[in-house]
Write a structure and sequence with these properties.
The protein has 194 residues and is mainly alpha-helical. It has five helices and no strands. It has one domain.
Length: 194
């Protein structure tokens, strides 16, 4: 019952991510990863239980072989007749091995889905950190731009607008302005991609 709820949550969350082009992935992925981890844990537990059941069944058969001192008849030895207990054991063993294989496949699929979700969340976090760092850099540049603008205006008042040093500083200030605007554009593009 609980497994079905986790599976439903993962399914609905993945559908929402697909429908919105992963717009809400940063908020949904932690829940998806937790649910996938829970599902993987349940699958691993079921696989382990089946393996233990197989071991118990093999042990029961080995005990039967040791305690059963009944000799096979000459006819049974010639025809290769298998005792009913051994036939039952072979059927049980084959069925348990099939179930273990099926559960192993399910467990591996769940694990790969969880790893994929972990990777996607790491990429989203990395992109978010890159955007934050880019925005911090833009703010520092903008702050420096304000200081440089204040200094340039003060120099213009002292030396005049036509002074050669002021003209060269104005050209450098235009280049700095272009750089600040370019950095803001890059930051905005990163945020749009995210």
């Amino acid at each position: 019952m609980a497994v079905a709820k986790w599976e439903s949550m993962v399914d609905i969350s993945n559908r929402l991510n697909a429908a919105t082009s992963n717009e809400f992935a940063a908020q949904l992925l932690p829940f998806i990863i937790f649910a996938q981890g829970t599902l993987h844990g349940e699958a691993a537990k079921r696989t382990s239980e089946k393996r233990k059941a197989l071991e118990v069944r093999v042990q029961q058969f080995e005990n039967w072989k040791l305690t059963s001192k009944k000799k096979r008849s000459r006819q049974a030895m010639l025809t290769g007749e298998i005792p009913p207990e051994e036939q039952e054991f072979n059927r049980d063993k084959q069925q348990l091995e099939k179930e273990i294989f099926r559960l192993d496949v399910i467990e591996n699929v769940l694990l790969s889905d969880k790893r994929e979700s972990d990777s996607l969340l790491e990429n989203i976090k990395r992109d978010a950190n890159n955007c934050v760092e880019s925005l911090k850099l833009c703010r520092k540049l903008y702050h420096q731009y304000g200081i440089d603008t204040q200094n340039l205006l003060a120099d213009e008042k002292r030396k005049g607008k036509s002074h050669f040093e002021i003209r060269s500083k104005r050209k450098g200030h235009k280049v700095f302005t272009t750089m600040v605007i370019g950095n803001y554009k890059k930051c905005i593009e990163q945020l749009r991609k995210r």
